Each structure stands twice: as C-alpha cells, then as structure tokens.
Amino acid sequence: MTNQEGMGVQGWRCTRCGHHYAMSRRVCRECGGEELETVSLGREGTIYAFTTIRVPPARWQEKAPYTVAVIDMEAGGRLTGVVQARPEEMAIGKRVRAVRSEEGVYIFRL
Ligand SMILES: [Zn+2]
Predict the structure, then answer these.
(1) What is the CB neighbour count within 10 angstroms for residue 24?
(2) 66-88, pLDDT tens digit by residue?
(3) Thinking of the domain 10-109, which architecture would CATH place it in?
(4) Would you call 58 helix, strand, or coil by DSSP?
(5) How far is the CA of 10 from the centre of ligand 1 (A)?
(6) Distance 71 CA to ligand 1 centre (A)
(7) Domain coordinates in residue numbering, the chain
(8) For residue range 38-50, what is the model confidence (pLDDT) as tens digits?
(9) What does pTM read for this prediction?
C-alpha cells in the first residue's frame, strides 16, 4: 500500500495450503510449503491486542502518545500497526481499517 488508498495491506499466501501471513517468510509454518506468493490482505481487520506508546523511538517522537495494535486481518495474517484513536476508544475485537502506510508501518482507523 502506498501513502494513497491502495490495494490494502500487503501479505503473503502459501500456494500449497493457502495460509496467509503478514510478514514475509521462506517456509510456511503450517505445511512447510516453500512457495509463498504476494497477496493483498485487504484493509479491514480486528484488534487482537493493543498498547499506548508514550515513550517512542526517536523518529516517532512527535507522534506520541500513539496506539500500537496487533491486528488480525480479515483475509488472514496478523500484523502490528498504529491505530489513530484515543486510548479510551480502543478495545480488543474492534474493527479497524488501514488508511495508509508511513515508513513501512500501516496506519489504521476505527
Ligand atoms: Zn502452507
């Protein structure tokens, strides 16, 4: 996904068993298959876990505090992204939508 609304979150899919991954891997964890193809994981996902970052790495300093969440993508795959929401709006199980990526990090909204 580029900074504009694009094809969604990039992921990988095992060509043997169809398992989806949000991170590139050499070998499928599920079936040992060695061929993974690039796919879109879509834009919609569900919050699996989250935390609010108040002391960020230097390059994200001006954005703090911000919320980092582990997100289960609807199409499969789990990734960590930033959710633009107030901490009190966050809850496990809430649906989020990827809106863009910044420096390789996907930014989501509720
Ligand atoms: Zn597989």
Answers:
(1) 10
(2) 999 999 999 999 999 999 998 88
(3) Beta Barrel (2.40)
(4) helix
(5) 18
(6) 21
(7) 10-109
(8) 999 999 999 999 9
(9) 0.84
